[in-house]
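**Protein of interest**
===
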Amino acid sequence: MDETRADKRTRLSIRSARDREGLTYRQTMDAPRTPPNSTPATPLPTPPALRSHPVPLPLERSGKVRDVYALPAGWRRGGPDEDALLIVASDRISAFDVIMPTPIDGKGRLLTAMSAFWFEFIRARRIVETHVLSTEIDDVAASVIPTDHPSRAFLRGRVTIGRKCRVVPIECVVRGYLEGSGWKEYQASGSVCGVALPKGLQQCDKLPEPIFTPATKAASGHDENISFERACDEVGIETMSVMRDVSLSIYRAAAEHALARGIIIADTKFEFGLPADSEQKMGRVWMPPILIDEALTPDSSRFWPADDYQPGRAQRSYDKQFLREYLESLVNAGGWDKTPPGPMLPPEVVRGTHARYLEAVQKLCGDDVARRVN
């Protein structure tokens, strides 16, 4: 297919994001170098850039990346509304459950665009209902956020307006390849979350079939991998069975889409919730969970370039693994111990992380989406 002028501009823009300041494609795809010194990180104040622009709404909670605000009745411009939350993706980035003090400029818009693409992908295939009501700040009435309020410009491209839900406290992890905590668990026991796997698998091997490996959703600290049976004890077998089946269905469809575009989705995680407006029915009738939070982003998934895939070693990636490898080099050099505060990130790590996220958006979501967020 011939390349249009618009496509060429997008491709060149993405390449310039990688190459700016002398970064070549190979440099951004390679793991970052060990820092030249191993001076221990010192406590740093949270820079203003890590805080979202003040929004004139009640803050319900602030996570590692997203800030969640309560929308009042009458929030929707020109139409009926329902109980909803305004979810804002910041430019914060975390690793090893620690928020880094350096933002990745534009990351929030990239995450929002990719999640919106996947939520529509899931809706169009009727796999499961999602929490998304809108991703347009212009759908919020001026009586809620005035049109001249400075937060509107910041929020454009960063918001998901979602149905208010009670979160089911289980992380739904699907693994198609053996890496991360799953690889470590397999080395120790030959299984992952109670799922027995064939002997002799290597790091990053493709599994015979994708497996569902739930984890506790910790309010703080690290999530814990658990068996499906224990997850059923926590939230109920009906709810857990639906979450498992839906998670596997989404993964299979998304993995096929991604592979056709040169990306392997090695693993990913989903979150589910029960809509607040269904609370009065609970106890009288079972309510199916819906998909919430984000979907299939570099923050929640491992994305690998298919043309460089080779089992038996760590893979190059379009996700946070680039950042994790830099931080591990700090840990190995005695410069950080994986506890707060996180270390300041050097410019080449910030640029390399942004370039990976942007290229993932372009490959998975297409040129039109990439143009809107870059």
Notes: The chain has a mean pLDDT of 85.
